[in-house]
Structure formats: structure tokens, C-alpha cells
Amino acid sequence: MDYARPELAERLASEYVLGTLRGPARRRFEVLLQAHPTLRASVAAWQERLAPLAVAAPAVEPSPQVWHAIEQRLFAAAGAAAAAPRRWWQQLGLWQGAAGLATVAALALGLVISQPLPVEPPIVIVLNANPDAAGALPSSIKASFVASLSADGRALVLKPIGELPIEASKALELWAVPASGAPRSLGLVSAQQATTVLQTKLLKDTAAFAVSLEPAGGSKTGAPTGPILSVGKLQT
């Protein structure tokens, strides 16, 4: 899913700020926020847009008829059993307290949606074209990518830099490369648009990221089988 699309970012951000995005979908979105500037900008815009709604409305004094109707509906049965039934003004403290709680809740909502998200800046890695892969693509094509990685290592957005035509019989596969040992696959990535990768330990034992050219469907061996088109090292 391309989270850089403005219409998708707007829809998810609005649901997040309004609170209608819940459960696993909300937690997943919060992870994506750390790695995707477009989503963060959309959330900030929606927070600013909805902040005025949290301002308490001017107080309106109900008419005696309204209070009497409330009294009759809520306290008529209890009043009939009591020796001295309580009138509506005796309940005024209760309703003022409820109105006060509503005002506090509205102000609290305003405070929440007006606060900026405490998001750490993402880690940006440039995967430069590998000169050793000469011949894998036309000489005019430079297979370069930029990766935006969340600070907690749970989300990565990889986007190709420029046009990168790939034959239908081929695919691009992203790898996490350790300082020593075999690389591990992070899945197939797009040659035309941003790809989002969600895993819990993208940074664990990772010294670099690499993109290889594989048969359609990806490597069948669990290791790169085609040329390594681009590599980007993590700065430590």
C-alpha cells in the first residue's frame, strides 16, 4: 500500500485524529507515522483543523419547563415514595456538576488534539547503485533508493530514485545485511513507487540494506541469487 498517496494519507489521518481508527489498525498507523513524513503532515493538519471543535460552547440556561420535565422523568418515582420530594432546584448541583464534567472533557480533548505527536525523526538511508552490478541493467539506469526507517526499527519505507524499468520476469528484493553472516529477506519491493515494510526488528544485527535483482516471485533459496543492484550502510 502506497502511503504517500495524498488521498490515502488524508483518510487515515482523519480517522486517527477523530478516534475512529482503533485496535490493531491504529497501532499499525502509529508505527507508520514514525517512518512516513506525509502521514505525519496529514495528522498535524487534521489536529489543527479539529482543534476549534474542542472549545466549550457558551453556556445556555435551560428554562424552568425543561428542568421540570427532567425532574419528572428521572425523579418522579423516587419523589412519590419520599415524604418530602426533592424539587428540580434541589438537583441543580448534580446537573451543574455533569455540565462541568462535560466542559472538562471538551477542554481535555482540545488539549490532546492540539499537542504535537512525540515522534522521533526517522533514520534516512541512501542505497546507492552498486558499480559491481554493471550489465544487470542498461548503462543509463542507476538503481538507487532512499529508505526512511522508524527510530524504533519497526517500519521502513523504500522508494526508488528515478525510473527503474524491470522486466516482467524479474523482481526486486530487499535484504537486511548483518556485519557477519547471511542476509535476511525483507520481501519484494516496487521499482516504481514506495514500498512499506513492517517488521518488529528491522535494525537487529543490521549493518546495511541491499536490493537484489531476482526471478519473479523473489529468491527461492533464502539468499540473494541475482546481482546486488544497490547497497546502503547504516551510520553508527
TrEMBL record:
A Pfam short name: RskA_C
User: What GO molecular-function term can you cite, just one?
Assistant: sigma factor antagonist activity
Question: Any idea where the Anti-sigma K factor RskA C-terminal domain is?
Answer: 98-228
Gene Ontology CC, one term: plasma membrane
Example GO BP: regulation of translation
Q: Which domain of life is it from?
A: Bacteria
Signal sequence extent: none
What protein is this chain from?
A: Anti-sigma-K factor RskA
